[in-house]
Amino acid sequence: MSGPVIAVDWGTSSFRAYRLDAQGGIAERRESAGGILRVRGGDFAAALQAEVGDWLAAAPDALVVMSGMIGSRQGWREVPYVACPAEPEEIAAGLERVDWGEGEAWIVPGLLDESRPGQPDVMRGEETQVLGALAALPNGGGLVCLPGTHSKWVRVESGVLQSFATYMTGEVFDLLQGHSILSRLMTKGAVAVDRWFLEGVAVGQGGGLLNRLFSARSRALTGNLPEDAVRSYLSGLLIGDELASAVPAAPTEVHLLGAPTLAALYEAALAKLGHSVVRLDADAVAVGLHGLAGHLDAAGRAP
Amino acid sequence: MSGPVIAVDWGTSSFRAYRLDAQGGIAERRESAGGILRVRGGDFAAALQAEVGDWLAAAPDALVVMSGMIGSRQGWREVPYVACPAEPEEIAAGLERVDWGEGEAWIVPGLLDESRPGQPDVMRGEETQVLGALAALPNGGGLVCLPGTHSKWVRVESGVLQSFATYMTGEVFDLLQGHSILSRLMTKGAVAVDRWFLEGVAVGQGGGLLNRLFSARSRALTGNLPEDAVRSYLSGLLIGDELASAVPAAPTEVHLLGAPTLAALYEAALAKLGHSVVRLDADAVAVGLHGLAGHLDAAGRAP
Question: Alpha-carbon dihedral of residues A19, A22, A26, A30, nearest 10 degrees?
């Protein structure tokens, strides 16, 4: 690796950047709400300058590598998906360069999984986080969970991203707590990892989610659920339904990669169901982007 | 039955009334958006006057019988639930009178099903629709589906409402089509009973709803679902998930009670899965309310 790297995780609603030294160490980090939907008139070059222009000025030869929705149709440049199973080299080979007259910037491709007939799945950004966590997986393999608005479950074997599945758990939770008949029952507050959350996880195991959701209301109406517990119970229900589908029934080791608050919910739910959890570095995306920059350098900065 | 009855189905967001003759025939009907949430300052007496004051003036001795959320905590008077299994006589015995100085008005109790531990279920209004449909059920029994914002599935045996389950299918569909990442993919239009709807029903059979929902997006992104079909596919997915849980796998006769447009979706989905469908009269609530009025009269207008 020859020079400094600016690693950017540019999603729909957030912008995260790391200034990395030549060894990949995080020299500085930065985060904003400047996701791609906030970029005016599609001027991503100006947006990137506004976010990290000082870093670029200080290191004009820095290699900028970006992952996430910045590579989608709504982003700077639509970079075609790489099909699963995908090796790190295949993902690196899919990198595409953007011309912006300000040094060198590349965008990471997303992944496409077409292994289930009629149910293709896609991701943009999480593949780079998993790449950054490969070294922490035993023999480069395991089941990786990235909780979020759209949770991703990635099956990795010998360093190859084999397959994955997306769950809209976070988004459905936000809709239900914000706009549904259940909202009216809820007191203010955050989700707690308490007996009501775990009760929701247990009830969520039974399938028939559209029915079980209503139990948040009927239990509250009949005095079987305190009003200040509805939010945690609902969160448990949804995560429980996700886990019933995403994790095998037999005790399984799950590698969790995500922000601490959300990861804590998944860890508690997985433990309740008898699974074991290993937490991965939440900054894995910086490691993944640095590794991809290394591939670029090794290839003479061609993908 | 001695006199005229005004039958009122008063829900959260709608008001439906029938002026019935002494034999229970529908002489006139009326419908408005004046659900209980629209009633200012909780003045339900004034609201009822505004809706059917002319009927009352023409027949001051009419018996007003009301079902639905009007009997909830947010309604005119909270009428305690009757527990399942519930016979028509038990429901009639739970009727409560409201005093409003304008003749006689009664509210029907809701039903409570506590047969599944930790998953109590409640309804207000649908029990009266089922009562009105009992005569149409073979030997007074069968599986009755009332599709809606919150679909209800009621198991009836020998004229007794044995048990039931609620599915939040309609509400979740509205949230997803109105406020989710899927909304952006959708073109305008209504749900159609077409191959995409039926494809959604099939995919919805597989469980893991939070994952399958995302297929509406990933299929559209990968060209496996036309944009103008996302809405129908999503509707099929949700109804498919509901049916996978609500109906036994073996071919089953389902009695459908609901508005024609929504009932048509359920009928197509049930047929696709090999079940048979019998449509019940969508005005069954008027029959049910007339029957309860008969119980009141037989009991000397005591419940």
Answer: 0
**Quick one: what percent of chain B has pLDDT higher than 70?**
99
Q: Are A297 and A2 in contact (CB under 8 A)?
A: yes
φ, ψ of residue A36 to 5 degrees: the values are -60, -25
Domains of chain A: 5-136+285-298 (3.30.420.300), 167-279 (3.30.420.310)
Q: How does pLDDT run across A194-251, given as a tens digit for each residue?
A: 999 999 999 999 999 999 999 999 999 999 999 999 999 999 999 999 999 999 999 9
Q: What is the ipTM of this complex?
A: 0.94
pLDDT over threshold 90, residue B122: yes
A246 touches chain B (CB under 8 A): yes
Q: Which pair of structure tokens corresponds to residue A154?
A: 């990635």
Q: Give the chain B residue whose CA is nearest to the CA of A177.
A: B175
Helix orientation angle between A230-246 and A195-204, rounded to the nearest 10 degrees:
40
For the cut 60, the answer to whether the pLDDT of residue A155 exceeds it is yes
Is some CB atom of chain B closer than 8 A to the CB atom of A53? no
> Which amino acid belongs to residue B1?
M
Contact A232, A303 (CB under 8 A): no
Q: Is A1 a residue whose pLDDT tops 60?
A: no
Q: What was the pLDDT predicted at A129?
A: 98
Sign (positive or negative) of CA dihedral A146, A149, A152, A153: positive
